[in-house]
Amino acid sequence: MSGKMINKTSQEPKHQNSNGSEPTIGLALGGGGARGLVHLLVLEALDEMGVKPTLIAGTSIGAIFGAAYASGLSGAQIRAHCEELFHKKSNLVRKVMRKWPGSRTQIWNPFSPALFNVETVLEQLLPASLPKDFEGLQIPFISITTDYHTQMQRDVTSGPLLPAIAASAALPALLEPVVIDGHILIDGGFVNPLPYESLEGQMDISLAIDVNGEPRGDGKSMPGSMEALIGTSQIIMRSILREKLHDHQPDILLSPPVGRFKVLDFFKMEEILNRCDTLKDDVKRELEKAMESSKAKA
After folding, report:
1. Closest by alpha carbon to 282, among 229, 228, 208, 225?
2. Cα Rg of the chain, angstroms
3. C-beta atoms surrounding 253 within 10 Å
């Protein structure tokens, strides 16, 4: 996939290659549940620099934010939407239940393959302006999923957008798998928690944001059943990323300090963003250096 640089801000891009073209940027947003709220800072940093990615690849929470940004929403607009969602837990629950006209069992059903139907929940929580299909996006986007039966990565790059995002975030037992074109798909983090290699060969600079987080806990507390399930998935994802990085690294890799937060700590949004308050400056500094280097090589 490829595409032209899209700039929706009023700023002019600050960097150009010697041939007059802008260095192209690929953005990889990793999975990590609520820890991925720090992706908002990355998107805001890009907006403030006056640049837009040529291609976005996302896993799980990274796919959700990546699709929203690819739709043309700014980082500030996405942040405002999240602040409204996660301001108060009771308000969020009422929002989901009030807007869904069917039975509650279509959101939560103990007899289904998972506790929650991820497509139903996301339909109520995602910005209403998101297009129905990939074709409506302004930036090419790759949703990373795992094919449950082949145990291989399956990239979704066309067709209906909501199922593709939902599949990438469908953590087994918690969120129901999604069927696309006859394939049963689950959370993309089980095969590729940070899909920076999906960007290779298609742009000048790859920027990857790892939100899996460093190990947490005191080493003594016994986890509950749900915490153990989610924690185990994080162990798997961290192991996959560690092996990937041994083989090949993106041009820019940033790993904000989000390990102290749990995967479902969405209502700690302000605390998470404050904890990583230097991330915007880190993105700008590293991207400035990479763009200058790209300009010098052109």
Report:
1. 208
2. 19
3. 18
